[in-house]
Amino acid sequence: MAATDVAPIRTENDPAAERDHQRDFTDLVDRLERQGRDAEALLAAVQRFEVALPTWAFATGGTRFGRFSGAGEPRTLREKMEDASLVHRLTAGAPRISLHIPWDDTGDIAEVLSDARRLGIGFDAVNSNTFQDQPGQRLSYKLGSFSNPSAAVRRQAIEHHLRVIEIGKQVGSQALTVWLADGSNYPGQMSLRGSFDRVRECLQEVYAALPDDWRLFTEHKPYEPAFYATVVQDWGSSLVLAQSLGERAQCLVDLGHHLPNANIELIVARLLGVGRLGGFHFNDSKYGDDDLTAGSIKPYALFLIFNELVLAERERLPGFDPAYMIDQSHNLKDPIESLLQTVDQLQQGYAKACLVDHEELASHQASGDVIMAERTLKRAYETDVRPLVAEARRRRGGALDPVLAFRASGYRAQKAIERPVIAHTVAPTHL
Ligand code: LRH
Ligand code: MN
């Protein structure tokens, strides 16, 4: 079978599951209508919710302690796009991918575009990479890229970003995500203000090169790989940068890029309040930048973030247009199964947030009724919206239960045949 042909993958829902689903969905619609909610409007809202998939999450991830690769993993951008199109087919909610350059720089844009057309997927924000030295690269980013004291290194990093924009333009992206690993491991190693000023200066040149309809997302992170000071360490630094660049510069919130117990929904509310929330890298974590499946560790926190987003959407907040993207790394789970879980968790989180009665909430907040305010949120969060999210997918040809449908499809076993494992001589660059 030629690599280009995608074997027909059966995603039909099992008849018994269909019957159970219809009963569960009818019960939920009945309960929602008794609460005065419009189930069809809610279902349509869930169908409008879309998230972009990270190409770099389709191969097994790893840590410095090891990597346990799985069978049938994608070896090329085309194979990652095949996997992405299956995730979209089963969830009906992930029609775009995020490219990471140079990991996805195949050098053949025409082929990438024809594969995208054939597989029915589009392109969200493109990601730059100055956190690794590429084979044949002239100058090293060991001591930073835009913050590097060497003007030549900064120039090289700017040239890289201009190339990323070029590739993005060719595939139809409209945003550039900039995460910088720049930072230091020891006090004294780096000028804390000088490094930030150099980053701002370089980003001004990149921002000036953006097409008029593009946005630039700055992504903050508290530590790793820098273990003393990271130049763009927190949302405040990211916001200062975005505000200094221009209207089309906004902040990207990677859920894993916060110190333990940070109140991320509060950060989201702050950025929404000043019109600088550019988008998200959804994932979950217990300790650090663990890149675990979204909703797997702190599902209530994820719901509270969606609550802020739905409220902003309903208030038609000026400039509200967040780019929803996933950023995960799968060390133990099958990457496709984890991404199917993730899209489902995001669809559920969004649906629950759409169930919040914001008028009632505002009245309890105004009257200082703490208990009733909390209960208003919890009533939405504790509503089992799975039948409605499943129905939203089913009506779009998606699966009631994407993970079970994927397992029943035999896709991974088939790919294990089509994609013989490449023995990794050196640690793959995308880890
Ligand atoms: C940094 C990060 C960033 C990506 C990388 C793969 O931790 O979240 O968004 O470039 O992961
Ligand atoms: Mn990220």
The proportion of residues in beta strands is 5-15%
| Biggest β-sheet description | 6 strands, parallel
For the biggest β-sheet, the strand order reads 4-5-7-9-10-11
Count of DSSP E strands?
A: 11
Task: Kindly provide the radius of gyration, computed on alpha-carbon positions and rounded to a whole number of angstroms.
Answer: 22 Å
- Overall, the morphology is globular
Bound molecules: 6-deoxy-beta-L-fructofuranose, manganese (II) ion
Mean pLDDT: 95
Share of helical residues: 40-55%
- In terms of structural class, how would the helical and strand content be classed? alpha/beta
Outline the low-pLDDT stretches. 1-6, 425-431
State the separation between the terminal residues, measured CA to CA: 30 Å
* Pattern of helices and strands: HHEHEHEEHEEHEEHEHEHEHHHHHH
Number of separate helices: 15
